Amino acid sequence: MLKIKLSAFAVVVGSMLLNAQTLSSPNGEFKMEFSLKNGSPYYNLKYKGETVVEDSRLGLRLLKDGDIQFASELERKDQQGQDLLEGFVKTKEEFSSKNEKWDPVLGEKKTYVNHYNELAVTLNQTANERHIIVKFRLFNDGLGFRYEFPEQKNLNYFVIQEEDSEIDLPWDAKAWWLTGDYDSQEYQTQTTNISEIPQRWPSSYDGNASQTTIKNAVQSPLMLKKEGKQPLYINLAEAAVVNYAASNLEVDATTYKFKTHLTPDGQGAKGYIQTPAVSPWRTIIVSDKAEEVLDSKMLFNLNEPTHYKDTSYIKPTKYMGVWWEMIIGKSQWAYSTAKNVHIGKTDFSSLTPNGNHAANNTKVKEYIDFASAHGFDALLIEGWNAGWEDWFGHSKEFVFDFITPYPDFDIEMLNQYAHQKGIRLMMHHETSGSATNYERWADKAFQLMNKYGYPSVKTGYVGNIIPRGEHHYSQWTINHYLRIAEKAHEYKIMVNSHESVRPSGQSRTYPNWIAAEAARGTEFEAFGGNNPDHQTILPFTRFMGGPMDYTPGIFQTKLDYYFPGDKRFVKTTLAKQLALYVVMYSPLQMAADLPENYQRHLDAFQFIKDVAADWDDTVILSAEPGDYIHTARKAKGKDEWFVGGITDENARRFTVDFSFLPKGKKYEATVYQDGKDADYISNPQSYHIFKKTVSSKSKISIDLARSGGYAISLKPLK
Amino acid sequence: MLKIKLSAFAVVVGSMLLNAQTLSSPNGEFKMEFSLKNGSPYYNLKYKGETVVEDSRLGLRLLKDGDIQFASELERKDQQGQDLLEGFVKTKEEFSSKNEKWDPVLGEKKTYVNHYNELAVTLNQTANERHIIVKFRLFNDGLGFRYEFPEQKNLNYFVIQEEDSEIDLPWDAKAWWLTGDYDSQEYQTQTTNISEIPQRWPSSYDGNASQTTIKNAVQSPLMLKKEGKQPLYINLAEAAVVNYAASNLEVDATTYKFKTHLTPDGQGAKGYIQTPAVSPWRTIIVSDKAEEVLDSKMLFNLNEPTHYKDTSYIKPTKYMGVWWEMIIGKSQWAYSTAKNVHIGKTDFSSLTPNGNHAANNTKVKEYIDFASAHGFDALLIEGWNAGWEDWFGHSKEFVFDFITPYPDFDIEMLNQYAHQKGIRLMMHHETSGSATNYERWADKAFQLMNKYGYPSVKTGYVGNIIPRGEHHYSQWTINHYLRIAEKAHEYKIMVNSHESVRPSGQSRTYPNWIAAEAARGTEFEAFGGNNPDHQTILPFTRFMGGPMDYTPGIFQTKLDYYFPGDKRFVKTTLAKQLALYVVMYSPLQMAADLPENYQRHLDAFQFIKDVAADWDDTVILSAEPGDYIHTARKAKGKDEWFVGGITDENARRFTVDFSFLPKGKKYEATVYQDGKDADYISNPQSYHIFKKTVSSKSKISIDLARSGGYAISLKPLK
């Protein structure tokens, strides 16, 4: 008897020693198993006993260091021995844990919890006498893993041909995905099974100012759902994309396998690495509750704490803008009728005004009056600076200097006027993708901002990147965005980047990079429209790594109001627009419409004026990707709560359960909901506002129109 | 009778009106004829009645503006209608003349004469309703022509696919040529007939840190010679390469035709143009005297006058350097044994010194002592700054910060020490080709130079350019060099650029860009050797557009002096090294060898100490490309003359005729010549010095050893 038991024990121990390691999450619900098979590293993931990721391979293919010439020479030549794919033996594993709390400068909660068990496996590639580390962190919401490349004799510099990190699902799943692309995320989300992705892929995208699609690939964050009686929600993303290219995901639609696909530079190389270095974290969030996916802070937890000393200048910002009227075509960014201007040479005051330049002194003052009267922090003005006449489509490197106002924009007077009225102006730096030019002018541009008291800047990268050949998500460009964020910090400036890479939780490290667009925002309602379910998906995808400047708040959703016969319209009800301020987290929130439209609906506008943008707490009441999201949040440092709920193309009824409120207190809820006859196509502006006293025991049943929503502000009753 | 004459007259007038225009040079020796054939522009050139350039076509092919995506999309798609090649009618021609004198800040003569007749032909491409101008300037030394693109409704932005300017010779000719390349000119000159170029091409080049060869193309300036009883010397080059790519020349070896071949960017586009714009000038210098080619100032004359207000800081500079000892391998640029350093992070003082770092306090002071004792203006120190451990071959963008000295280089102390001794230090900014990084640090780097009193900087571009994909001669990189020159001017700094584009006369516009290497210099004597005729060719090629920092003056030509058994040697006699200071014009001249070698030959060193670097006058006594050059020059502002003569692999006798001296004055000539038994291989250090009183009536017969030379300094006798 003893003998058999000993043998059984020996077998168990033996298999443990056979290059397999298991890591558990703090609550034990996740188990990650690492193994080497034929010298190649693999991992798998189980959630509550079920395999959610089958054995998936890890590794990277490399190009020859120092020998990159030009694209024609980038084919692999006998590279097998040089890749970081196989020939590994495990020489060390190190377990550790962390359970910390940290307070984001701005966030959805006052405090985030970073609790994980970690396994760091050192792999030695014996043939090349070099080693790497694969580090796994298993949280109660899922797995993150990355590669680490320690400085060592035989690994100092290398060039990545491709990273080959796989995520192999055991089954088909519903996927909410964007066309894989090196330059743009501004596509409509496609909802198909993984197996249907290749079929749908060719029709999955429309045109964009800068785009480079990758056949049969999709972007991340990627939302997935295993359907059935016990659904599982899975999110694939990356965290801490720093000094590395951003990744898309190649799709094998028959094996339900995803693989990293990095963004190349102009020569096809996918990363220039000097050790010591680390890759971004590849993240796999899993839950049987969709709400828990939205609640996950994994991507932020995986970023480094900030090294910034002073973050006092980083504040939540609610703003309006001289912007939407240009987007819809009512006015222009450009000042003159010229088609060809030379910054620093052209005398703009001698040009013929086009008579439709929005950013002029008179109009800006009107916007300032309105925004200040309604308590906004800032006013964005686009088109304030010389160069918009030929800013796009010519790969013009010296396209703006970011310091020369147009003749009808008195930068000194307008800033003084705004400050007297208690409001700041928000700077606008459209780079046209000309990143080298922006870096050349950044110091002077930021000095101008300091001189006139601009606390924040919206940057833009419309068009192909210069250096020509680089992409919006190439390593070089990623580092450009970070250089700008760091330089802005020197000047105590907050940055909101449009058309940049989507965030990967780096606001923990660079808290002044407070938001980005980097997805299909409200402006596309005027460019082709956003699907009614668009906003019920984005929080599960784009928002996982950080806030989005979605610029909601359009009250005049139908554009034939301006242009008779115009068929364009924002595909939501007005009440849904209010809900977006709660459902779509950003510390930077725009009331995007024209003042006149708010003026006509001051009662509804009150919600936007009241809603906070920085939070002590967030509770996802109920959510299903592509269908609906209902969220409650508590304003930071105040006893005020806000609730928002939205639906897709289906009307829904939802019961708001106020049990998230502190017990024993009463609040006055002001409810803004779709009117009984509201319809996003035929009657979007029908809404109903009422007040009600509530407590944690209350419930309110609300009917949402199709592509409708509701918003509730809660103030304590004395 | 009258009728016939009238008809004849009408015919003459008629043919003149038939789209043919003739331009003559001021002295009438050249005639250029412009014509349109089937709507395409052509020109030809006659010299003293002989056709030297047959009808040659002009024009450009364009890519679609604004649609450049990536290399795969750059094939021409139905471009024919969009090119600037045909479909032209002439709408205007304008004749003008100029005869001006201008004084270069630093030059071979105090005053240059710019005398030409000009024809500007306006060509309208009727199908596209746009026009261009082809401008011809005919000098007494040849032709320059360029394209002008006026700002107009239908020509604002365009992208060049290729410029197709042809130079079609009527006969085969001897050519001194370099392998066509987008990144390097550091090749040995090949001497073959045009017809033999394709045959020789594959073996015409050796390896280089950054090179991209163009099959069957050659570089410019290109020197040619029609051989025979009445030889003709022809030089093809370009002037004023500004905001445009530099050009190589494609060769049709059967029709003896050359065509411009611009340098592409990483995507294959050859220029992004915004009107109004001009191309560089394509220059064709012709003479029946080789000496007149060397005397030509056409490339400078074709550049714009400078806009600089203060040029007082721009001075001739004779310098020594902590440099050659690293080139030959006696010491290192790097400080430590590390293979991998991080600028701004690595604590260099904690690294293990390699014990062979040249730029250390002790050694630098020794060099300062020597250079100052011998009256030099400046001392270059390479390897002074942190980052040399891994500076090359890794495409490392943040490779240097240009402001952090190594631990053993006390920048403050050494500058003070130098200044006390009456000498300045020369800064070194090796960029490693990482131009984006250099631009990021340029202000701080130049501020450091101002702080410590460095008047000049040697820059370097060893390795592939970053932005990756750009070439050393791409439009973007050309503009980078100009940005650096202009920024240096703000700081009153002179620039000497290595591995940059070869100059195209732009020292007229940017006089602080005083020299460049941009060809195979003295350092290559330690890398593979320079042919004995190398220096008899370069003045006819590389030097035509501006000075070269050739860094001559090696006295210890055989390197087995340092390393027993080392077979490397500088392939000239010592006396030839002295001659180079006169034969190869540069306002920046280095005595490149180690102090100890000058110390052992102080008598010969005296010539280097005496020779000027800035001139009132230059007389080319006698020259034949690839064979010999004999030059006399008068120091600026002094009654001192210097003569230098060099030969190729053949020994020669030359009679120096001093008729260039002012009449009626006596001078003491100190003659430094090859010893009777001097030989560049077996006895290079044999030289003979003697003094002689001379006047304008004197002649001295000198024997030059093979790859030998002589130098003469002339001071007035009281």
Automatic annotation (TrEMBL), chains A, B:
UniProt superkingdom: Bacteria
GO MF: carbohydrate binding; hydrolase activity
Ranges for domain Glycosyl-hydrolase 97 C-terminal oligomerisation: 614-715
Domain Glycosyl-hydrolase 97 N-terminal: 23-305
Residue ranges of every copy of the Glycosyl-hydrolase 97 catalytic domain listed in the record: 323-519
Assembly: Monomer.
Signal peptide: 1-20
Cofactor(s) needed for function: Ca(2+)
Alphabetical list of Gene3D superfamilies matching this protein: 2.70.98.10, Aldolase class I
InterPro entries: Aldolase_TIM (IPR013785), GH (IPR017853), GH-type_carb-bd (IPR014718), GH97_C (IPR029483), GH97_catalytic (IPR019563), GH97_N (IPR029486), Glycosyl_hydrolase_97 (IPR052720)
Protein source organism: Planobacterium oryzisoli
Entry keywords, A to Z: Calcium, Hydrolase, Signal
Record-given protein name: Glycoside hydrolase family 97 protein
